[in-house]
Design goal:
globular, 2 domains, Aminopeptidase, alpha+beta, 288 residues, 11 helices
Length: 288
């Protein structure tokens, strides 16, 4: 098994690290979508994530976006001397939580809101039931889809992974860009090992959509990591959004549908579902 070295040494993310990190990450109360083992592993190449171990056995994450090195501290801040060293070695600290923000400010670091990476939080019951005038357009789209098509929904078990992969391949062709294709494909291929779960939907006897995610925030929230649907079915996205929320267990108070990454269309779509709140994130850096 991979051994996580002590800072400043680092190691690559490997699947065998899941056994020692997954449960600790799952219990984090803030529910930051980046802070799951699956998310870190699946986007390890995009952000060049690596693990390191701080004193008191605190795992930390380092990475690089382009030429800018960064670090993340999901399990808390180290002593002020080591923290200063981390800031000296990196351009910034990403995914600063609301709890960490005042502590960093008190130590003299500049902490800036990272709105493009706020996670959208929804009451599970709101998405499952879509009650009230505010959701009338969503209900109309869903009703139109139901009236125009035959459909079935099933748990995304191993036997359905090939169909989900076919959906993903066609999704990439339809959009003409990679997007998160590589991570989404690996998530399907490794879904059993990472204990991701979801649903797959057939429309008019054809596999047409799937959702895939996991629980976080101590089991009180379910995060949707990937949701893919084929074009040509008006109301399909609205249908699977509601359908999947409706089958989630009552233990999940909230659904985290991750960030909009500053995309105006995606922001409008996420806001149209009336979020109950956000998992706010910040970036911190040294003051000049």
């Amino acid at each position: 098994m991979t051994t996580i070295p002590t800072y400043p040494d680092t190691c690559a993310l490997t699947l065998d690290l899941r056994s020692c990190l997954h449960e600790r990450l799952r219990r984090l109360p803030e529910g930051v979508s980046e802070f799951t083992f699956a998310n870190l592993y699946l986007f390890r190449e995009k952000h060049r994530y690596r693990f390191t171990l701080l004193p008191d056995a605190l795992p930390a994450v380092t990475g690089r976006d382009g030429d800018a090195p960064f670090f993340m501290l999901p399990f808390g801040l180290p002593d002020t001397e080591l923290l200063a060293r981390l800031f000296s070695d990196h351009a910034c600290m990403k995914c600063v939580t609301e709890n960490q923000k005042p502590m960093l400010e008190n130590l003299g670091y500049a902490v800036l809101e990272d709105r493009d990476n706020f996670d959208y939080l929804y009451n599970r019951c709101d998405l499952a039931e879509l009650k009230g005038r505010k959701f009338s357009k969503k209900r109309n789209l869903i009703n139109a889809f139901i009236n125009d098509h035959e459909y079935t929904g099933k748990p995304l078990l191993d036997e359905h992974i090939p169909e989900a992969l076919a959906i993903l391949e066609q999704w990439r062709e339809e959009h003409g860009e990679e997007g998160d294709y590589a991570a989404a494909r690996e998530a399907l291929e490794q879904s059993w090992g990472m204990q991701l779960c979801g649903g797959i939907y057939h429309v008019d006897n054809r596999p047409a959509a799937y959702s895939l995610g996991e629980e976080l925030a101590g089991g009180t929230c379910f995060v949707i990591h990937f949701e893919k649907a084929l074009q040509g079915y008006k109301g399909l996205y609205q249908f699977i959004n509601q359908s999947f929320a409706a089958i989630l267990p009552d233990c999940y108070d909230f659904i985290n549908r991750e960030q909009d990454l500053g995309d105006a269309g995606l922001r409008q779509a996420k806001e149209s579902y009336q979020p109950a709140g956000f998992v706010k994130k910040y970036r911190a850096c040294k003051t000049t």
